[in-house]
Amino acid sequence: MEKRCTDSQVKGVSTGTTILAATFDGGVVIGSDSRASIGGEYVSSKTINKVIQVHDRIFCCMAGSLADAQAVTKTAKFHLSFHSVQMETPPLVISAASVLKELCYKNKDELQAGFITAGWDRKKGPQVYVVSLGGMLISQPVTIGGSGSTYIYGYVDAKYKPNMSREECLQFATNALALAMGRDNVSGGVAHLVVITETGVEHVVVPGDKLPKFHDE
Amino acid sequence: MLEETGPEWLSEEVKTGTTIIAIEYNGGVVLGSDSRVSAGASVVNRVMNKLSPLHDKIYCALSGSAADAQTIAEMVNYHLDVHSIEIGEDPQVRSAATLVRNISYKYKEELSAHLIVAGWDRRNKGQVFATLNGLLTRQPFAVGGSGSSYVYGFVDAEYRKGMSKEECQQFVVSTLSLAMNRDGSSGGVAYLVTIDEHSTEEKVILGNDLPTFFDQ
Protein backbone atom coordinates (compact mmCIF):
# COMPACT_ATOMS: atom_id res chain seq x y z
CA MET A 1 0.00 0.00 0.00
CA GLU A 2 2.44 2.62 1.17
CA LYS A 3 5.67 3.36 -0.70
CA ARG A 4 7.41 2.76 2.59
CA CYS A 5 6.58 -0.92 2.72
CA THR A 6 9.21 -1.60 0.09
CA ASP A 7 11.73 -1.32 2.93
CA SER A 8 12.22 -5.04 2.87
CA GLN A 9 12.92 -5.07 -0.82
CA VAL A 10 15.15 -2.02 -0.66
CA LYS A 11 17.25 -3.69 2.03
CA GLY A 12 17.23 -6.54 -0.44
CA VAL A 13 18.57 -9.12 1.88
CA SER A 14 16.09 -9.42 4.69
CA THR A 15 14.08 -12.46 3.93
CA GLY A 16 11.27 -11.84 6.34
CA THR A 17 12.67 -12.27 9.78
CA THR A 18 12.90 -10.65 13.12
CA ILE A 19 15.98 -11.47 15.19
CA LEU A 20 17.33 -9.93 18.32
CA ALA A 21 19.81 -10.40 21.13
CA ALA A 22 20.17 -8.57 24.43
CA THR A 23 22.55 -8.80 27.37
CA PHE A 24 21.31 -8.87 30.93
CA ASP A 25 22.99 -9.18 34.29
CA GLY A 26 24.75 -12.53 34.01
CA GLY A 27 23.79 -13.67 30.53
CA VAL A 28 22.27 -13.00 27.14
CA VAL A 29 18.94 -13.69 25.48
CA ILE A 30 18.91 -14.38 21.75
CA GLY A 31 15.70 -14.91 19.83
CA SER A 32 13.91 -14.98 16.52
CA ASP A 33 10.55 -15.60 14.88
CA SER A 34 9.92 -18.80 12.95
CA ARG A 35 8.55 -17.84 9.57
CA ALA A 36 10.23 -18.50 6.21
CA SER A 37 8.48 -16.97 3.24
CA ILE A 38 8.93 -16.79 -0.49
CA GLY A 39 8.61 -13.27 -1.82
CA GLY A 40 6.33 -12.28 1.00
CA GLU A 41 3.45 -14.17 -0.59
CA TYR A 42 3.78 -17.74 0.58
CA VAL A 43 4.84 -19.00 3.97
CA SER A 44 7.13 -21.88 3.20
CA SER A 45 7.73 -22.79 6.82
CA LYS A 46 5.89 -21.80 9.99
CA THR A 47 8.33 -23.40 12.39
CA ILE A 48 11.84 -22.82 11.15
CA ASN A 49 14.44 -22.29 13.86
CA LYS A 50 16.71 -19.40 13.03
CA VAL A 51 18.74 -19.64 16.23
CA ILE A 52 21.71 -21.90 15.55
CA GLN A 53 24.10 -23.27 18.14
CA VAL A 54 27.71 -22.90 17.05
CA HIS A 55 29.24 -23.96 20.35
CA ASP A 56 28.21 -24.86 23.91
CA ARG A 57 27.60 -21.29 25.01
CA ILE A 58 27.54 -19.47 21.67
CA PHE A 59 24.51 -19.09 19.43
CA CYS A 60 23.86 -17.12 16.34
CA CYS A 61 20.83 -15.88 14.50
CA MET A 62 20.75 -15.47 10.79
CA ALA A 63 19.09 -12.93 8.55
CA GLY A 64 19.18 -12.64 4.82
CA SER A 65 19.28 -15.44 2.33
CA LEU A 66 18.61 -18.58 4.36
CA ALA A 67 20.73 -20.72 2.07
CA ASP A 68 23.75 -18.47 2.46
CA ALA A 69 23.23 -18.24 6.20
CA GLN A 70 23.05 -21.99 6.65
CA ALA A 71 26.18 -22.57 4.59
CA VAL A 72 28.10 -19.95 6.51
CA THR A 73 27.03 -21.20 9.94
CA LYS A 74 27.97 -24.76 9.07
CA THR A 75 31.43 -23.61 8.03
CA ALA A 76 31.76 -21.47 11.11
CA LYS A 77 30.75 -24.35 13.38
CA PHE A 78 33.47 -26.50 11.91
CA HIS A 79 36.13 -23.80 12.24
CA LEU A 80 35.12 -23.09 15.83
CA SER A 81 35.20 -26.69 16.99
CA PHE A 82 38.63 -27.10 15.42
CA HIS A 83 39.79 -23.87 17.05
CA SER A 84 38.57 -24.92 20.47
CA VAL A 85 40.36 -28.25 20.20
CA GLN A 86 43.57 -26.46 19.29
CA MET A 87 43.24 -23.94 22.12
CA GLU A 88 42.06 -26.61 24.57
CA THR A 89 39.49 -24.20 25.91
CA PRO A 90 35.97 -23.17 24.96
CA PRO A 91 36.09 -20.47 22.29
CA LEU A 92 35.44 -16.81 23.03
CA VAL A 93 32.25 -15.27 21.70
CA ILE A 94 34.32 -12.77 19.75
CA SER A 95 36.13 -15.68 18.06
CA ALA A 96 32.84 -17.06 16.84
CA ALA A 97 31.77 -13.63 15.62
CA SER A 98 35.16 -13.14 13.92
CA VAL A 99 34.89 -16.43 12.08
CA LEU A 100 31.53 -15.37 10.73
CA LYS A 101 32.89 -11.95 9.91
CA GLU A 102 35.82 -13.37 7.95
CA LEU A 103 33.50 -15.51 5.90
CA CYS A 104 31.10 -12.63 5.24
CA TYR A 105 33.86 -10.14 4.43
CA LYS A 106 35.97 -12.37 2.20
CA ASN A 107 32.92 -13.50 0.25
CA LYS A 108 30.95 -10.30 0.35
CA ASP A 109 30.25 -10.31 -3.38
CA GLU A 110 28.62 -13.71 -3.35
CA LEU A 111 26.90 -13.76 0.03
CA GLN A 112 23.83 -11.97 1.32
CA ALA A 113 23.68 -12.83 4.98
CA GLY A 114 24.05 -11.03 8.26
CA PHE A 115 24.37 -12.48 11.76
CA ILE A 116 23.82 -11.72 15.36
CA THR A 117 26.14 -13.73 17.60
CA ALA A 118 25.50 -13.96 21.31
CA GLY A 119 27.01 -16.01 24.06
CA TRP A 120 28.88 -16.24 27.29
CA ASP A 121 32.60 -16.79 27.84
CA ARG A 122 34.91 -16.76 30.81
CA LYS A 123 36.87 -13.71 29.69
CA LYS A 124 34.18 -11.10 29.11
CA GLY A 125 30.97 -12.69 30.27
CA PRO A 126 27.81 -12.13 28.26
CA GLN A 127 28.29 -10.45 24.88
CA VAL A 128 26.39 -9.67 21.71
CA TYR A 129 28.07 -9.08 18.34
CA VAL A 130 26.60 -8.00 15.05
CA VAL A 131 28.12 -9.03 11.73
CA SER A 132 26.48 -6.96 9.05
CA LEU A 133 26.13 -7.64 5.35
CA GLY A 134 29.51 -6.40 4.16
CA GLY A 135 31.38 -7.96 7.05
CA MET A 136 31.47 -5.23 9.70
CA LEU A 137 31.77 -6.56 13.25
CA ILE A 138 30.67 -4.54 16.24
CA SER A 139 29.71 -5.27 19.80
CA GLN A 140 26.49 -3.87 21.25
CA PRO A 141 24.51 -4.49 24.43
CA VAL A 142 21.33 -5.03 22.45
CA THR A 143 20.73 -5.47 18.76
CA ILE A 144 17.90 -6.29 16.38
CA GLY A 145 17.85 -7.39 12.75
CA GLY A 146 15.73 -8.60 9.88
CA SER A 147 12.83 -6.96 8.12
CA GLY A 148 10.66 -6.93 11.22
CA SER A 149 13.25 -5.06 13.22
CA THR A 150 12.31 -1.71 11.60
CA TYR A 151 9.10 -1.65 13.62
CA ILE A 152 10.70 -2.21 16.99
CA TYR A 153 13.61 0.23 16.96
CA GLY A 154 11.54 2.65 19.00
CA TYR A 155 10.42 -0.02 21.45
CA VAL A 156 13.94 -1.40 21.97
CA ASP A 157 15.46 2.08 22.40
CA ALA A 158 12.82 2.96 24.97
CA LYS A 159 12.59 -0.27 26.92
CA TYR A 160 16.06 -1.80 27.01
CA LYS A 161 17.99 -1.15 30.19
CA PRO A 162 21.50 -2.45 30.82
CA ASN A 163 21.81 -5.03 33.63
CA MET A 164 18.20 -6.15 33.72
CA SER A 165 17.33 -9.37 35.48
CA ARG A 166 16.88 -12.59 33.54
CA GLU A 167 13.08 -12.44 33.75
CA GLU A 168 12.90 -8.80 32.73
CA CYS A 169 15.13 -9.44 29.74
CA LEU A 170 13.16 -12.47 28.66
CA GLN A 171 9.94 -10.47 28.88
CA PHE A 172 11.53 -7.60 26.96
CA ALA A 173 12.68 -9.95 24.17
CA THR A 174 9.33 -11.72 23.98
CA ASN A 175 7.47 -8.41 23.79
CA ALA A 176 9.79 -7.07 21.11
CA LEU A 177 9.39 -10.18 18.96
CA ALA A 178 5.62 -10.16 19.43
CA LEU A 179 5.38 -6.50 18.42
CA ALA A 180 7.50 -7.05 15.33
CA MET A 181 5.56 -10.15 14.30
CA GLY A 182 2.37 -8.16 14.74
CA ARG A 183 3.41 -5.51 12.25
CA ASP A 184 5.67 -7.32 9.78
CA ASN A 185 3.82 -9.67 7.47
CA VAL A 186 6.90 -11.75 6.72
CA SER A 187 7.68 -12.44 10.37
CA GLY A 188 5.49 -14.70 12.44
CA GLY A 189 4.88 -18.11 13.89
CA VAL A 190 6.40 -18.85 17.27
CA ALA A 191 9.07 -17.00 19.19
CA HIS A 192 12.27 -18.99 19.68
CA LEU A 193 14.36 -17.70 22.57
CA VAL A 194 17.59 -18.99 24.04
CA VAL A 195 18.92 -17.82 27.39
CA ILE A 196 22.68 -18.30 27.80
CA THR A 197 24.42 -17.95 31.14
CA GLU A 198 27.55 -19.25 32.78
CA THR A 199 25.67 -22.23 34.13
CA GLY A 200 23.86 -23.31 31.03
CA VAL A 201 21.61 -22.81 28.07
CA GLU A 202 17.81 -22.75 28.15
CA HIS A 203 15.49 -22.86 25.16
CA VAL A 204 12.16 -21.11 25.50
CA VAL A 205 9.55 -21.45 22.78
CA VAL A 206 6.52 -19.18 22.98
CA PRO A 207 3.76 -20.37 20.66
CA GLY A 208 1.74 -17.79 18.75
CA ASP A 209 -1.28 -17.87 21.01
CA LYS A 210 0.81 -17.38 24.15
CA LEU A 211 2.58 -14.30 22.86
CA PRO A 212 1.80 -11.06 24.69
CA LYS A 213 -1.15 -9.20 23.29
CA PHE A 214 -1.32 -5.45 22.94
CA HIS A 215 -4.00 -2.88 22.94
CA ASP A 216 -5.67 -3.67 19.65
CA GLU A 217 -5.72 -7.47 19.89
CA MET B 1 30.36 12.08 -7.48
CA LEU B 2 33.06 14.20 -9.10
CA GLU B 3 30.68 15.83 -11.58
CA GLU B 4 29.37 19.33 -11.11
CA THR B 5 25.66 18.69 -10.86
CA GLY B 6 25.02 21.47 -8.38
CA PRO B 7 23.59 21.16 -4.89
CA GLU B 8 21.21 18.28 -4.35
CA TRP B 9 18.40 20.42 -3.10
CA LEU B 10 18.00 22.03 -6.51
CA SER B 11 17.12 18.75 -8.17
CA GLU B 12 15.59 16.60 -5.47
CA GLU B 13 11.92 16.83 -4.57
CA VAL B 14 11.29 18.45 -1.23
CA LYS B 15 9.78 15.91 1.12
CA THR B 16 8.70 16.19 4.66
CA GLY B 17 10.25 12.83 5.53
CA THR B 18 8.63 12.96 8.86
CA THR B 19 7.21 11.56 11.97
CA ILE B 20 3.67 12.59 12.79
CA ILE B 21 1.33 11.31 15.45
CA ALA B 22 -2.11 12.14 16.78
CA ILE B 23 -3.90 10.60 19.76
CA GLU B 24 -7.34 10.99 21.36
CA TYR B 25 -7.97 11.28 25.04
CA ASN B 26 -11.15 11.79 26.99
CA GLY B 27 -11.92 15.41 26.19
CA GLY B 28 -9.57 16.20 23.33
CA VAL B 29 -6.65 15.29 21.10
CA VAL B 30 -2.89 15.77 21.08
CA LEU B 31 -1.00 16.09 17.79
CA GLY B 32 2.77 15.97 17.40
CA SER B 33 5.36 16.26 14.66
CA ASP B 34 9.07 16.69 14.09
CA SER B 35 10.42 19.66 12.14
CA ARG B 36 12.76 18.40 9.43
CA VAL B 37 12.19 19.02 5.71
CA SER B 38 14.62 17.25 3.43
CA ALA B 39 15.47 17.44 -0.28
CA GLY B 40 17.47 14.28 -0.91
CA ALA B 41 20.22 14.29 1.68
CA SER B 42 19.99 18.02 2.46
CA VAL B 43 17.88 19.41 5.23
CA VAL B 44 16.25 22.47 3.70
CA ASN B 45 14.25 23.49 6.75
CA ARG B 46 14.99 22.31 10.26
CA VAL B 47 12.21 24.14 12.04
CA MET B 48 9.11 23.58 9.95
CA ASN B 49 5.86 23.23 11.85
CA LYS B 50 4.00 20.37 10.22
CA LEU B 51 0.90 20.80 12.32
CA SER B 52 -1.34 22.95 10.20
CA PRO B 53 -4.64 24.45 11.36
CA LEU B 54 -7.71 23.59 9.30
CA HIS B 55 -10.03 25.39 11.68
CA ASP B 56 -10.03 26.71 15.23
CA LYS B 57 -10.29 23.28 16.78
CA ILE B 58 -9.19 21.06 13.90
CA TYR B 59 -5.57 20.55 12.93
CA CYS B 60 -3.86 18.29 10.45
CA ALA B 61 -0.37 16.77 10.47
CA LEU B 62 1.50 16.81 7.16
CA SER B 63 3.76 14.11 5.72
CA GLY B 64 5.07 13.09 2.32
CA SER B 65 5.69 15.64 -0.39
CA ALA B 66 5.83 19.06 1.26
CA ALA B 67 4.16 20.84 -1.63
CA ASP B 68 1.32 18.35 -1.95
CA ALA B 69 0.65 18.28 1.77
CA GLN B 70 0.63 22.05 2.18
CA THR B 71 -1.64 22.51 -0.83
CA ILE B 72 -4.16 19.99 0.45
CA ALA B 73 -4.15 21.64 3.87
CA GLU B 74 -4.72 25.09 2.41
CA MET B 75 -7.50 23.93 0.11
CA VAL B 76 -9.29 22.17 2.96
CA ASN B 77 -8.81 25.22 5.20
CA TYR B 78 -10.62 27.32 2.58
CA HIS B 79 -13.43 24.81 2.06
CA LEU B 80 -13.96 24.46 5.79
CA ASP B 81 -14.24 28.23 6.20
CA VAL B 82 -16.98 28.33 3.59
CA HIS B 83 -18.67 25.27 5.06
CA SER B 84 -18.69 26.61 8.59
CA ILE B 85 -20.32 29.85 7.41
CA GLU B 86 -22.95 27.82 5.55
CA ILE B 87 -23.87 25.70 8.55
CA GLY B 88 -23.53 28.59 10.97
CA GLU B 89 -21.39 26.76 13.53
CA ASP B 90 -18.00 25.09 13.97
CA PRO B 91 -17.44 22.20 11.56
CA GLN B 92 -17.14 18.61 12.67
CA VAL B 93 -13.76 16.89 12.60
CA ARG B 94 -15.26 14.23 10.38
CA SER B 95 -16.17 16.89 7.81
CA ALA B 96 -12.59 18.15 7.70
CA ALA B 97 -11.27 14.62 7.40
CA THR B 98 -13.74 13.85 4.63
CA LEU B 99 -12.64 16.90 2.67
CA VAL B 100 -9.00 15.80 2.99
CA ARG B 101 -9.92 12.27 2.03
CA ASN B 102 -11.84 13.39 -1.04
CA ILE B 103 -8.85 15.27 -2.39
CA SER B 104 -6.43 12.46 -1.52
CA TYR B 105 -8.59 9.86 -3.20
CA LYS B 106 -9.50 11.81 -6.32
CA TYR B 107 -5.89 12.75 -7.04
CA LYS B 108 -4.24 9.71 -5.57
CA GLU B 109 -2.10 9.07 -8.63
CA GLU B 110 -0.70 12.59 -8.72
CA LEU B 111 -0.31 13.30 -5.04
CA SER B 112 1.99 11.72 -2.53
CA ALA B 113 1.06 13.12 0.82
CA HIS B 114 -0.57 11.67 3.90
CA LEU B 115 -2.44 13.90 6.31
CA ILE B 116 -3.65 12.90 9.74
CA VAL B 117 -6.65 15.02 10.78
CA ALA B 118 -7.47 15.51 14.45
CA GLY B 119 -9.56 17.90 16.47
CA TRP B 120 -12.42 18.51 18.85
CA ASP B 121 -16.08 19.11 18.12
CA ARG B 122 -19.12 19.32 20.33
CA ARG B 123 -20.80 16.19 19.05
CA ASN B 124 -18.04 13.58 19.30
CA LYS B 125 -15.39 15.36 21.40
CA GLY B 126 -11.80 14.45 20.47
CA GLN B 127 -11.30 12.47 17.27
CA VAL B 128 -8.36 11.30 15.15
CA PHE B 129 -8.78 10.36 11.50
CA ALA B 130 -6.24 8.74 9.18
CA THR B 131 -6.63 9.52 5.48
CA LEU B 132 -3.85 7.44 3.96
CA ASN B 133 -4.18 6.90 0.21
CA GLY B 134 -7.78 8.03 0.22
CA LEU B 135 -9.29 5.93 2.95
CA LEU B 136 -11.02 7.49 5.94
CA THR B 137 -10.83 5.77 9.27
CA ARG B 138 -11.27 6.97 12.81
CA GLN B 139 -8.65 5.55 15.18
CA PRO B 140 -7.73 6.05 18.82
CA PHE B 141 -4.30 7.14 17.62
CA ALA B 142 -2.46 7.35 14.30
CA VAL B 143 1.18 7.59 13.30
CA GLY B 144 2.55 8.49 9.90
CA GLY B 145 5.56 9.57 7.90
CA SER B 146 8.84 7.81 7.28
CA GLY B 147 9.78 7.77 10.95
CA SER B 148 6.61 5.99 11.98
CA SER B 149 7.93 2.57 10.89
CA TYR B 150 10.45 2.63 13.71
CA VAL B 151 7.92 3.33 16.42
CA TYR B 152 5.06 0.98 15.54
CA GLY B 153 6.33 -1.45 18.15
CA PHE B 154 6.61 1.28 20.78
CA VAL B 155 3.15 2.73 20.22
CA ASP B 156 1.58 -0.74 20.09
CA ALA B 157 3.15 -1.58 23.43
CA GLU B 158 2.63 1.71 25.22
CA TYR B 159 -0.82 2.84 24.16
CA ARG B 160 -3.57 2.23 26.68
CA LYS B 161 -7.15 3.38 26.56
CA GLY B 162 -8.16 6.10 28.95
CA MET B 163 -4.88 8.00 29.22
CA SER B 164 -5.04 11.51 30.64
CA LYS B 165 -4.03 14.63 28.73
CA GLU B 166 -0.58 14.77 30.36
CA GLU B 167 0.03 11.08 29.71
CA CYS B 168 -0.91 11.55 26.06
CA GLN B 169 1.45 14.49 25.72
CA GLN B 170 4.23 12.44 27.27
CA PHE B 171 3.42 9.53 24.97
CA VAL B 172 3.58 11.80 21.91
CA VAL B 173 6.87 13.39 22.95
CA SER B 174 8.52 10.03 23.69
CA THR B 175 7.34 8.58 20.39
CA LEU B 176 8.61 11.56 18.42
CA SER B 177 11.94 11.44 20.21
CA LEU B 178 12.45 7.74 19.47
CA ALA B 179 11.54 8.16 15.81
CA MET B 180 13.74 11.21 15.40
CA ASN B 181 16.67 9.24 16.78
CA ARG B 182 16.33 6.46 14.25
CA ASP B 183 14.93 8.08 11.11
CA GLY B 184 17.36 10.14 9.07
CA SER B 185 14.51 12.13 7.60
CA SER B 186 13.04 13.17 10.95
CA GLY B 187 14.67 15.51 13.42
CA GLY B 188 14.94 19.01 14.77
CA VAL B 189 12.41 20.08 17.36
CA ALA B 190 9.09 18.60 18.38
CA TYR B 191 5.86 20.53 17.85
CA LEU B 192 2.85 19.67 19.97
CA VAL B 193 -0.75 20.86 19.67
CA THR B 194 -3.34 20.01 22.34
CA ILE B 195 -6.97 20.67 21.44
CA ASP B 196 -9.85 20.42 23.86
CA GLU B 197 -13.18 22.08 24.53
CA HIS B 198 -11.66 25.16 26.08
CA SER B 199 -8.45 25.85 24.20
CA THR B 200 -6.00 25.03 21.47
CA GLU B 201 -2.48 25.04 22.82
CA GLU B 202 0.65 24.99 20.64
CA LYS B 203 3.97 24.07 22.13
CA VAL B 204 7.55 23.59 20.93
CA ILE B 205 10.01 21.26 22.60
CA LEU B 206 13.61 21.97 21.67
CA GLY B 207 15.99 19.16 20.75
CA ASN B 208 17.92 19.09 23.99
CA ASP B 209 14.73 18.99 26.06
CA LEU B 210 13.48 15.83 24.39
CA PRO B 211 13.59 12.60 26.42
CA THR B 212 16.78 10.55 26.02
CA PHE B 213 17.22 6.79 26.15
CA PHE B 214 19.75 4.33 27.36
CA ASP B 215 22.27 4.74 24.55
CA GLN B 216 22.43 8.55 24.56
TrEMBL record, chain A:
<dbReference type="InterPro" id="IPR001353">
    <property type="entry name" value="Proteasome_sua/b"/>
</dbReference>
<protein>
    <recommendedName>
        <fullName>proteasome endopeptidase complex</fullName>
        <ecNumber>3.4.25.1</ecNumber>
    </recommendedName>
</protein>
<dbReference type="Pfam" id="PF00227">
    <property type="entry name" value="Proteasome"/>
</dbReference>
<dbReference type="GO" id="GO:0051603">
    <property type="term" value="P:proteolysis involved in protein catabolic process"/>
</dbReference>
<dbReference type="InterPro" id="IPR029055">
    <property type="entry name" value="Ntn_hydrolases_N"/>
</dbReference>
<dbReference type="GO" id="GO:0004298">
    <property type="term" value="F:threonine-type endopeptidase activity"/>
</dbReference>
<dbReference type="GO" id="GO:0005737">
    <property type="term" value="C:cytoplasm"/>
</dbReference>
<keyword id="KW-0645">Protease</keyword>
<dbReference type="InterPro" id="IPR023333">
    <property type="entry name" value="Proteasome_suB-type"/>
</dbReference>
<comment type="subunit">
    <text>The 26S proteasome consists of a 20S proteasome core and two 19S regulatory subunits. The 20S proteasome core is composed of 28 subunits that are arranged in four stacked rings, resulting in a barrel-shaped structure. The two end rings are each formed by seven alpha subunits, and the two central rings are each formed by seven beta subunits. The catalytic chamber with the active sites is on the inside of the barrel.</text>
</comment>
<keyword id="KW-0378">Hydrolase</keyword>
<dbReference type="GO" id="GO:0019774">
    <property type="term" value="C:proteasome core complex, beta-subunit complex"/>
</dbReference>
<dbReference type="GO" id="GO:0005634">
    <property type="term" value="C:nucleus"/>
</dbReference>
<feature type="active site" description="Nucleophile">
    <location>
        <position position="17"/>
    </location>
</feature>
<keyword id="KW-0963">Cytoplasm</keyword>
<dbReference type="InterPro" id="IPR000243">
    <property type="entry name" value="Pept_T1A_subB"/>
</dbReference>
<comment type="function">
    <text>The proteasome is a multicatalytic proteinase complex which is characterized by its ability to cleave peptides with Arg, Phe, Tyr, Leu, and Glu adjacent to the leaving group at neutral or slightly basic pH. The proteasome has an ATP-dependent proteolytic activity. This subunit is involved in antigen processing to generate class I binding peptides.</text>
</comment>
<keyword id="KW-0888">Threonine protease</keyword>
<keyword id="KW-0647">Proteasome</keyword>
TrEMBL record, chain B:
<dbReference type="Pfam" id="PF00227">
    <property type="entry name" value="Proteasome"/>
</dbReference>
<keyword id="KW-0888">Threonine protease</keyword>
<protein>
    <recommendedName>
        <fullName>Proteasome subunit beta</fullName>
    </recommendedName>
</protein>
<keyword id="KW-0645">Protease</keyword>
<dbReference type="InterPro" id="IPR023333">
    <property type="entry name" value="Proteasome_suB-type"/>
</dbReference>
<comment type="similarity">
    <text>Belongs to the peptidase T1B family.</text>
</comment>
<dbReference type="InterPro" id="IPR029055">
    <property type="entry name" value="Ntn_hydrolases_N"/>
</dbReference>
<keyword id="KW-0963">Cytoplasm</keyword>
<keyword id="KW-0865">Zymogen</keyword>
<keyword id="KW-0391">Immunity</keyword>
<dbReference type="InterPro" id="IPR016050">
    <property type="entry name" value="Proteasome_bsu_CS"/>
</dbReference>
<dbReference type="GO" id="GO:0002376">
    <property type="term" value="P:immune system process"/>
</dbReference>
<dbReference type="GO" id="GO:0005634">
    <property type="term" value="C:nucleus"/>
</dbReference>
<comment type="subunit">
    <text>Component of the proteasome complex.</text>
</comment>
<dbReference type="InterPro" id="IPR000243">
    <property type="entry name" value="Pept_T1A_subB"/>
</dbReference>
<dbReference type="GO" id="GO:0051603">
    <property type="term" value="P:proteolysis involved in protein catabolic process"/>
</dbReference>
<keyword id="KW-0647">Proteasome</keyword>
<comment type="subunit">
    <text>The 26S proteasome consists of a 20S proteasome core and two 19S regulatory subunits. The 20S proteasome core is composed of 28 subunits that are arranged in four stacked rings, resulting in a barrel-shaped structure. The two end rings are each formed by seven alpha subunits, and the two central rings are each formed by seven beta subunits. The catalytic chamber with the active sites is on the inside of the barrel. Component of the immunoproteasome, where it displaces the equivalent housekeeping subunit PSMB6.</text>
</comment>
<keyword id="KW-0539">Nucleus</keyword>
<keyword id="KW-0378">Hydrolase</keyword>
<dbReference type="GO" id="GO:0005737">
    <property type="term" value="C:cytoplasm"/>
</dbReference>
<dbReference type="GO" id="GO:0005839">
    <property type="term" value="C:proteasome core complex"/>
</dbReference>
